[in-house]
Design brief:
Elements (H helix, E strand, L loop, with lengths): L3 E3 L5 H11 L7 E5 L5 H8 L3 E4 L5 H7 L5 E4 L5 H17 L4 E7 L11 H17 L2 E7 L3 H8 L2 H7 L1 E3 L12 H12 L8 E5 L7 H12 L4 E3 L3 H10 L4 H16 L9 H5 L6 H8 L2
Parallel strand pairs: 1-2, 1-4, 2-3, 4-5, 5-6, 6-8, 7-9
Helix pairs in contact: 1-8, 4-5, 9-13, 10-11
């Protein structure tokens, strides 16, 4: 059996992939990449029996050591948008030099991304990374994820906030999103890693089985909370001013704004999904996810 390395292993996605994969292949065939082996999350992984390899996307020397003897690399895309492109270049170049045989990259599922979109620069990082991987000569599998279901609850706000405001307040218009729970994306990733030969040079659109607007999410929340939760899609200036008034950090406001506008444009309204085939079932509806999150 080939040696598999899972990056981002102390994060929610990478750790879940490792757990799912450990039920399918021997632990001795799985290694996990961590930046700090002394962190509590890294220690937990070690206690479970995973081999720890230390590396940082910003440090090619550490990656070269970590990638030694690796046949399959599950490459979780970087979360630091400002630094992501050079980090990804480091990973692809080092994996190529280390003769990694097959790279599985967590990309993004997008529909009609326009160069004028506020999300174009950050989302184009994924397109560029896919190009680098294709040009590297490594076998590849692109796992294009839609937005996590967890993002819906993060953008909507905490239960207490909703009960006070009685509104979902986001400039998402009538845009739809095929939300997917992170655990289901992790399970699908493990399924693919466990049978790599079936997925060589394939690209998968990892979208939820159903697509919803935030107006529909507000209706779901009304049923869950037993309160009439409305939906307001404000002008961007009103949205930013309102959040600023309530002390929300500017960085967070900016993030919510660009993603909301992307949703309004229909960027995450993907017409297809390969996820059902990989999981062998339909994905969890966002209403079911929210019921757990808000009760």
């Amino acid at each position: 059996m080939s040696k598999i390395l899972i990056t981002g292993a102390t994060g929610g996605l990478g750790s879940a992939v490792a757990d799912f994969l450990s039920k399918k292949v021997a632990l001795t065939n799985i290694a996990v990449l961590v930046r700090d082996p002394q962190s509590e999350k890294a220690k937990t992984l070690a206690e479970k029996g995973f081999e720890l390899r230390v590396g940082d996307y910003t440090d090619k020397a550490s990656l070269a050591k970590a990638f030694t003897g690796i046949d399959q690399l599950y490459f979780v895309s970087g979360s630091d948008i400002a630094a992501r492109l050079p980090q990804h270049q480091n990973v692809v170049e080092t994996a190529t030099a280390a003769k990694v045989g097959h790279i599985f990259y967590t990309s993004v599922s997008l529909t009609n991304l326009s160069p004028n979109s506020p999300l174009y620069e950050s989302m184009s990082h994924h397109t560029k990374t896919e190009e680098w991987i294709k040009n590297s000569g490594m076998r590849y599998t692109f796992l294009r994820h839609n937005l996590y279901s967890e993002i819906a609850s993060m953008f909507v706000g905490a239960k207490e906030q909703l009960l006070e405001s009685k509104n979902v307040f986001l400039p998402t218009g009538e845009g739809k999103v095929a939300f997917v729970a992170r655990t289901e994306l992790a399970e699908a990733g493990a399924n693919v890693l466990a049978n790599p030969a079936a997925h060589v040079n394939k690209t998968y659109e990892m979208n939820g089985s159903t697509k919803v607007t935030f107006a529909e999410i507000a209706a779901f929340l009304s049923d869950i909370l037993g309160e009439n939760i409305g939906y307001v899609s404000p002008e961007v200036s009103d949205f930013e001013a309102t959040l600023t008034k309530f002390g929300v950090p500017a960085e967070y406001i900016g993030l919510m704004t660009v993603f909301s506008l992307g949703i309004a444009e229909g960027i995450f309204d993907s017409p297809t999904t390969d996820l059902e085939q990989i999981l062998g079932r339909k994905t969890q509806p966002i209403a079911a996810f929210l019921k757990v999150a808000y009760q």
